[in-house]
Design brief:
- The protein is α/β, with parallel strands linked by helices.
- It is built from ten helices and 16 strands.
- It has two domains: 132 residues, Up-down Bundle (Four Helix Bundle (Hemerythrin (Met), subunit A)); 193 residues, Rossmann fold (3-Layer(aba) Sandwich).
- α1 packs antiparallel against α2, α4 runs antiparallel to α5 and α5 crosses α6.
- The chain is globular, with a radius of gyration of 20 Å.
- The two termini are 32 Å apart.
């Protein structure tokens, strides 16, 4: 199975997703600052994977600290927590994982430095293991929603690469394929960073899952032709009312699905649900560098001075979502989260 994030020999090892699909390069990180930069530059991406990586970033902060006592270590860890939290504002799993690490730190106040470091490593490893288990449970719940011979459309990458492994939306695809239910997966290219064409198509090819890549603007056309039976996407943050932030373009797909009477499902771990956010209107949307839109694969396709609006995410209203697939089961509207 694809392992985008793992702990090995005292370092965090990440599969560099900026090099896919042409090169499979792993990079090892020994400091929390390096992990923060890897998150910021999309070496690791996808809400659950970011959370896992950040948790191990805190472990590295403890290991690189030269603090001789607990209070000095806590100061170093606080710096790391703040630095890691500042990398990506939209994906709630980042803050959820860092909160778990903070609780471990608070519970370990006064412990010897080495003991607290061991507890932090155990917590980060638990976050990774729990994510893998949640993804497989989501896959099983979601596969039950996939009709025989289904043609499924997905947007962006919510696969093993976006998690600790297996995937959320692609986890549903994997499970449905394992049960012989899938005929075809339509893969949106997902401009401007092309996570669909670079990453999802790469994953599905490795798994031998039948798929066809389409430009984002083709999604409505294949729906109109009656060639899409359901849509499954991932999520980066789900508000208390079910409004869902996901990769830019997801809202457009949801609108198209509703117009064509196609079920639109979101697959995400329960940790993606943020009950402190009443609706999608309160979700902070990250804006990224204009160069991502002015060019493709390093080639400039727009005048250098062209003004650009480049939101990384959009918000799909709850009323457009047929159901939310979590490791706890399938949640249908009206959305109520414990």
């Amino acid at each position: 199975m694809i392992s985008p994030v793992r702990w090995q020999d005292g370092r965090l090892v990440l599969l560099d997703q900026t090099r896919l699909p042409t090169e499979e390069v792993e990079r090892a990180y020994a400091s929390w600052q390096e992990v923060a930069e890897a998150i910021r530059t999309l070496v690791v991406r996808g809400a659950p994977a970011i959370g896992v990586a950040a948790a191990f970033g805190v472990v590295l902060a403890a290991r690189q600290s030269d603090a001789g006592d607990s209070s000095a270590l806590l100061a170093d860890l606080e710096e790391a927590l703040k630095g890691l939290a500042a990398t990506r504002p939209t994906a709630v799993n980042l803050f959820w994982a860092l909160d778990r690490m903070r609780r471990t730190i608070d519970a370990g106040r006064g412990l010897p430095v080495a003991t607290l470091g061991d507890r932090l490593l155990a917590e980060a490893q638990a976050i990774l293991s729990e994510d893998l288990a949640a993804n497989r449970a989501m896959g099983a719940h979601g596969a039950a929603l996939v009709p025989e011979g289904a043609r499924l459309l997905t947007h962006c990458n919510a696969g093993a690469l976006a998690t600790a492994g297996y995937g959320t939306a692609v986890g549903v695809i994997r499970a449905a394929h394992e049960r012989g239910r899938l005929k075809l997966v339509w893969v949106d290219e997902t401009r401007p960073v092309m996570q669909g064409s670079r990453l999802t198509a790469w994953e599905l090819g490795k798994e031998g899952i039948p798929h066809r890549l389409i430009s984002d603007v083709t999604a409505g056309f294949v729906m109109k032709r009656g060639e899409v039976d359901l849509v499954v996407t991932g999520a980066d943050r789900i508000a208390a009312n079910g409004d869902t932030a996901n990769k830019i373009g997801t809202y457009s797909v949801a609108v198209l699905a509703r117009h064509h009477s196609i079920p639109f499902y979101v697959a995400a771990p329960y940790s993606t649900i943020d009950p402190s956010i009443p609706s999608g209107a309160s979700i902070v949307i990250e804006e990224r560098d204009a160069g991502e839109v002015r060019g493709v694969a390093g080639r400039q396709t727009a005048p250098a001075a062209t003004p650009v609006f480049n939101p990384a995410f959009d918000v799909t209203p709850a009323e457009l979502i047929t159901a939310i697939i979590t490791e706890r089961g399938v949640i249908r509207p009206p959305y109520r989260f414990d």
